[in-house]
Amino acid sequence: MTAIYDPFTPTVLADPATSYHHLLEEEPVYLCQDFDPKFYILSRYQDVESALQDIETFSSEFGQGPKYSMPAGMLSDPPQHTFFRRLVQKAFTPQSVELLAPQIENLADNLLKEIDDPTSWDLHDDYAFPLPVIVIANILGVPEQDLHLIKKWSDASVEAMGAEDPTSYQETLQQMAQYLLKQISDRRLNSEKEPVDLISKLVAAKIEDKGLTDEEILGVVNQLLVGGNETTTSLITNAVWRMLEKPKLWQSLVDNPALVDRAVEESLRFDPPVLGLFRTTTRDVELHGKIIPKNAKVLLHYAAGNRDPRAFNDPNNFSLDERKGRHLAFGLGVHFCLGAPLARLEARVALQALVQHFPNLAFVNSGERIKPFFLWGRKTLPVQVT
Ligand code: HEM
Questions:
Q1: Is any ligand 1 atom within 6 A of the Cβ of residue 331?
Q2: What CA–CA distances, in Å, run from 41 to 20, 38, 57, 249?
Q3: Distance between CA atoms of 260 and 65, rounded to whole angstroms?
Q4: With the C-alpha atoms ordered 191, 141, 103, 264, is the resulting torsion angle positive or negative?
Q5: What distance in angstroms lies between residue 142's CA and the mean position of ligand 1's atoms?
């Protein structure tokens, strides 16, 4: 059979969803030869779900990116993962996230009030991009004046993960590490104070008397920045993009703001900001008549799984009607996104504020896609007010 899918062709990069039918129906175990190392793609909902749950076979030990790497802390397999995850969860609870709602509402309001020319602006640059960075910097306790650094660094970390030559990002990532290590050691010096920000809480957190070293905290903070910034920006941008593209959807939200949670969930299903992440096989796996060899990189394609008609009714339609089924945008199992409650809250607040401030918001064009092939979001999204 001729392979028609290549995640690196301009057409697939511009609209990955055009390829899902082929993956799902023709080649549910797809070998992608156009990357070094070559990798396999699993696209069917049930296969992705099973692989995420079978962590002994589909290991995270060689990284979640397409290159073989040595992830530490939360990104690894149990038992190390379990210790880190429990510890971070102590400092970053869903309850502590809910308490941030008024602060995020204020921030969204202010960002929208500060737009220079409200008749014509960029939804990414002026809104969806600054919002999550400011939120996470506040949570971590990083000074406001260093926000631009945090954003620059977290973008570089994400890009490094999918780059052909990750070493080109080394210098930038070292600057980030130095900066954060200084923040961590400052907190250690003040550790007798009640911990308020997340870095202080990570410094103080212990399980059975065992805490984290500075380097380990750095890894966790890095993971929060890398995992949480661009993804949440993409969620907000993707959701608005799809609804403005079909103005009836936007109007439904304006008329009924209570639909906001459905809009967020449908955007996560239809346009997951992380299209898929990688695992490495620990043994030969036979699936749909093909063998995936031991030590192979496998892309678990959440986005294709989210469009699998075996799992979702009318999957290629973005709809604000009630839907059955659980999307894969935040992964599943032991690595299920730790920041999901925060991402959902930020997106909900961002959409609510936008509808209130700009009910007449209108589509200009789709802007530009972000770079890494396994991520999905807009780098720009021009909008106007009619
Ligand atoms: C729409 C926004 C987001 C999306 C789509 C997203 C997606 C994901 C996915 C797919 C995973 C699973 C990784 C895997 O299976 O290997 C994950 C894990 C993770 N996410 Fe998110 N994420 C988002 C927002 C956030 C935010 C806001 C934070 C924190 C501030 C965050 C922190 C994390 C962490 C720490 C993990 C690792 C959990 C573990 O391995 O136990 N994420 N995320």
A1: yes
A2: 11, 10, 15, 32
A3: 32
A4: negative
A5: 20
341 lines ligand 1 (CB under 6 A): no
**CATH assignment of 10-373?**
1.10.630.10
State the distance from the centre of ligand 1 to the C-alpha of 84, rounded, in angstroms.
14
pTM score of the predicted model: 0.95
Contact present, 62 and 55 (Cβ < 8 Å): no
Kindly report the number of other CB atoms within 10 A of residue 267's CB atom: 26
- Residue with CA at minimum distance from ligand 1 atom 19: 337
Give 207-229 pLDDT, tens digit per residue: 888 889 999 999 999 888 888 89
The full set of domain ranges for the chain reads 10-373
Strand order in the sheet with 29-32: 29-32, 39-42, 297-300, 277-281, 58-59
Q: From ligand 1's centre to the CA of 48, what distance in Å?
A: 17
Looking at residue 308, its amino acid is D
DSSP for residue 322: -
What pairs with residue 278 in β-bridges?
299
For residue 98, count other CB atoms closer than 10 A to its CB.
Answer: 11
pLDDT in tens, 327-377: 999 999 999 999 999 999 999 999 999 999 999 999 999 999 998 899 999
